[in-house]
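Researcher: We're teaching a course module on how sequence relates to structure. For the next exercise, students receive a sequence and then see the predicted structure as tokens, so they can try to spot secondary structure elements on their own. Here is the exercise chain.
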Amino acid sequence: MELSYDPRHNIAYLRLRTAVAEVETLRVSDELNIDIAPDGTIYGIELLNANVQLSGDQGQFVLIDKESGK
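Model: And here is the predicted structure for the students to work with:
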């Protein structure tokens, strides 16, 4: 899994699988696209306007390890 962020365009991409030849993009909303691999699994999730969608209470990206709680 890989999370990348393009600050110039304010887009984040969460890639869940290794590269595939082609994907089908499903537009869920104005700010969310999901890429579907040919086998029907989710390849990746694109977040437009990412700084708003990924911000915590103080406007910063928050990453929490569910196992440790940190």
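Model: If you want an answer key for the exercise: The chain has a mean pLDDT of 86. The longest strand covers residues 42-48.
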